[in-house]
Specification:
Blueprint (H helix, E strand, L loop, with lengths): L4 E6 L10 H13 L1 E5 L17 H12 L10 E2 L4 E8 L11 E2 L1 H4 E8 L11 H4 L7 E4 L5 H4 L7 E3 L6 H4 L10 E5 L5 H14 L3 E3 L11 H13 L1 E6 L19 H8 L3 E4 L5 H6 L7 E2 L4 H9 L2 H18 L2 H11 L6 H15 L7
Parallel strand pairs: 1-2, 1-4, 3-5, 4-6, 6-7, 7-8, 9-10, 9-11, 11-12, 12-13
Helix pairs in contact: 1-8, 9-12, 12-14
Length: 372
Amino acid sequence: MTDRHCLLIATFNMDARAWSGVPWEFAQVLGQIESLDVVAPRDRFYDKDNPTAIAPLRDRLEARWLRARGRHVPRMPVVQLTRDYDLALYVCQFIYEIEEIVQVRDFHSRAKKSALFLFEGWPATFAARSRTLALLDRFDHVFVLNGSSIAELSRYTSTPISQLSTATDLMRTSAAPDHPRRVVDFCCIGRNDPEVHEALLKFATERGLFYSYDVWKNQNVARGWEAVRRWNADLIRRSRFYIAWDPARQGGRPDVGKTQALSTRYFEGAAGGAILLGSAPDCPEYHAAFDWPDALVPLDQSPAQVIGALEADPERMARIRHDNLRQSLLRHDWAHRWASILATFDLRRTARHVARENALADRASTLRTEEL
């Protein structure tokens, strides 16, 4: 199939924080397997490359008028579509960003089918966003990362809702076929458990090990999404152990509460062939996506005990790396997620899509446990 045209609208250029690299990567993979247009404009009120820049007077007056009436102020500039699409997908991180879609003129009339993919949806916030959630009725389908939100979200829209996990670009993030040396002992990107973090620091110091972790908070990306995603992938592909914590362990988030939800971190760690340590979210999508033994080894004892037990069994460690790599290559590339979206609309994969999935399967078939 070569005559299908798709549209991806995303907010990754309007938010310079690290999580925006995930939809950017999705767009990169999608552009390799579809005839695709991407609409991802910058914030019309803030340019991270020129923070002192002043927004045009027209935009500032509009913002003042909307705020005075308690209305949402769109940060996305107006975009006028000039062609028709077979399928249009809007990807955003937060609920309030759903309202940005009104800035894309003729979005629904130009697309035969349209869908929304929402990365963060916490039921505790829905009542306060009921007006925003009413916009879901304009889509033909809604995909959410947090499956536990579906029942509550369905109260605000008649549009069908499905759970859809994120993924990674396995051609970038997989440790196969080159298998770089694992010179980083422990790697943790983003969310951390303070008590375990201190124990890991102590353990790494005593053993003379390299523990890589974030030392910044609320940082903005300075070098573009290509650099961010490559840095993360190169770091994880060279890590022996990768630390991942479920969102419910992050204190101070009343919107999250005790909600069990799956995040991209688990897919990144497994794709890199690292051994995942930490805690797993107790939700159906996690159990479905990571259904092989030792997909994550709980850090439910001291790091010295958990890691000591693993290092005493090299065959187990090699098997964990092999399984993480193989399952990721076969199931957790962005091409696999796009296949799920296409299936929802009874659309076929393109030849380039099939070729990518075959190439990933070929990598999986050549893995050798003894190389890991």
